[in-house]
């Protein structure tokens, strides 16, 4: 996923960018409000999330959030030291999707990024019905957590469904193993790698479509959208 990090402190930005990169994000760093607004032209410029620090040198962060929302529907997470409820409400009213108060836990930040991105994809993915992902013969109903192939329901475990839904949100995009583990299992990569491999193998067998989920050696997995 492409992520726009709006942060005027280069040291903070460098450290956070390194963490995000390890979790599979392609990070672009903007040091000011104007840089951020230019990076989002045209219409979001392919970014999945904007991580917006409110303490910017050229413009008030709230003002920047309002301008971003007028230009694109890209999810915005505000990052600030202001913890009072009134500030949070103001940010949300301007169109922010979430609000993280410094100092924050990196795991929580990653979970919030994935959450707003997932909500955005689910809202935009209605190809023929709200909350339904259609991939050839495979239909994934997000609200009911039901999967069917050629009209026949396939019984999946909770983690199998979460894994399939994650990959199906962006067909063709490679998800790093660390990113999948972080979002589906809410834990770190250590000791969970074998579990991921087993769940992938189980999905291929249950869906009877071994080529649906492709292993990208040394990186992770991607869903290969079947022909309609």
Automatic annotation (TrEMBL):
<dbReference type="InterPro" id="IPR001789">
    <property type="entry name" value="Sig_transdc_resp-reg_receiver"/>
</dbReference>
<keyword id="KW-0805">Transcription regulation</keyword>
<dbReference type="InterPro" id="IPR001867">
    <property type="entry name" value="OmpR/PhoB-type_DNA-bd"/>
</dbReference>
<keyword id="KW-0597">Phosphoprotein</keyword>
<dbReference type="InterPro" id="IPR039420">
    <property type="entry name" value="WalR-like"/>
</dbReference>
<feature type="DNA-binding region" description="OmpR/PhoB-type">
    <location>
        <begin position="130"/>
        <end position="225"/>
    </location>
</feature>
<dbReference type="Pfam" id="PF00072">
    <property type="entry name" value="Response_reg"/>
</dbReference>
<feature type="domain" description="OmpR/PhoB-type">
    <location>
        <begin position="130"/>
        <end position="225"/>
    </location>
</feature>
<protein>
    <recommendedName>
        <fullName>Sensory transduction protein RegX3</fullName>
    </recommendedName>
</protein>
<keyword id="KW-0804">Transcription</keyword>
<feature type="modified residue" description="4-aspartylphosphate">
    <location>
        <position position="53"/>
    </location>
</feature>
<dbReference type="InterPro" id="IPR011006">
    <property type="entry name" value="CheY-like_superfamily"/>
</dbReference>
<dbReference type="Pfam" id="PF00486">
    <property type="entry name" value="Trans_reg_C"/>
</dbReference>
<feature type="domain" description="Response regulatory">
    <location>
        <begin position="2"/>
        <end position="117"/>
    </location>
</feature>
<dbReference type="InterPro" id="IPR036388">
    <property type="entry name" value="WH-like_DNA-bd_sf"/>
</dbReference>
<keyword id="KW-0238">DNA-binding</keyword>
């Amino acid at each position: 996923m492409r992520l726009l990090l709006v942060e005027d402190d280069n040291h903070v930005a460098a450290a956070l960018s390194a963490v995000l990169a390890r979790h599979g994000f392609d990070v672009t760093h903007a040091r000011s409000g104007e840089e951020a607004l230019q990076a989002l032209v045209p219409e979001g410029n392919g970014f999945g999330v904007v991580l917006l620090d409110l303490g910017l040198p050229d413009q008030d962060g709230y003002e920047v959030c309002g301008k971003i929302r007028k230009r694109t529907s890209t999810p915005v997470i505000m990052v600030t030291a202001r913890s009072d409820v009134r500030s949070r409400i103001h940010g949300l009213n301007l169109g922010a999707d979430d609000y993280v108060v410094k100092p924050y836990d990196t795991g929580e930040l990653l979970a919030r990024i994935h959450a707003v991105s997932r909500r955005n994809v689910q809202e935009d993915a209605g190809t023929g019905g709200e909350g339904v992902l259609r991939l050839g013969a495979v239909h994934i109903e997000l609200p009911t957590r039901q999967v069917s192939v050629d009209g026949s329901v396939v019984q999946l475990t909770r983690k199998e469904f979460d894994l399939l839904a994650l990959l199906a949100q962006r067909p063709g995009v490679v998800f790093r193993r660390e990113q999948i583990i972080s979002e589906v299992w809410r834990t770190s990569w250590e000791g969970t790698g074998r579990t991921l491999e087993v769940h992938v193998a189980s999905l291929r067998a249950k869906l009877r479509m071994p080529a649906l989920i492709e292993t990208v050696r040394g990186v992770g997995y991607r869903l290969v959208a079947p022909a309609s």
